[in-house]
Amino acid sequence: MSYFNELYQEVILDHNKRPRNFGELSEANSQAHGNNPLCGDRLTVYVRLDGNTIAEVRFKGAGCAISTASASLMTEALKGKTVEEVEQLFQKFHAMVTGKEMSEQSAADLGKLTVFRGVSEYPIRVKCTTLAWHTMLAAIHRSDETVSTE
């Protein structure tokens, strides 16, 4: 097993067993619900926006290890970012997990999120990996519809 695969597995397992920013956010001023019917992942993303900036973000739900780890790492990466920065980071993340070419700068911008680079080899897992991200976008844009990756 390569070093990258070992790191991927280690980070995924850690964030699945001990998800960061897990639980409801009572002072949230926006939230959205997400569902991946194929895998059974369900989550709610809670956001407290201060103007155009994410002051706090949490999630709650149940899902596979990849979905939970992705939500956990996403919440760590997005605190303090503006809505525009979140959208740009999502575009880079989505390009990476779907196997698109990625510049060194994009990889640097993604930081720890690059552990999901190998997901592109398993297209069925892309939906698990991106559910929290699509749900986050719905929350910051105050969409009332449940996000579905199906």
Describe the protein.
The protein has 150 residues and is α+β, with helices and mostly antiparallel strands. It has a single domain, classed as Sufe protein. Chain: A, CATH 3.90.1010. The chain is 46% helix and 19% strand. The protein has 5 helices and 4 strands, in the order αβββααααβ. It has helices at residues 3-17, 65-78, 83-97, 104-110, 123-140, and strands at 30-36, 41-50, 53-62, 147-148. The protein has a 4-stranded mixed beta sheet, with helices on one face. Strand 2 and strand 3 form a beta hairpin. Helix 2 (65-78) packs parallel to helix 5 (123-140) and helix 3 packs antiparallel against helix 5 (123-140). It starts with a helix and ends with a strand. 35% of the residues are buried. The model has no long low-confidence stretch (mean pLDDT 91).
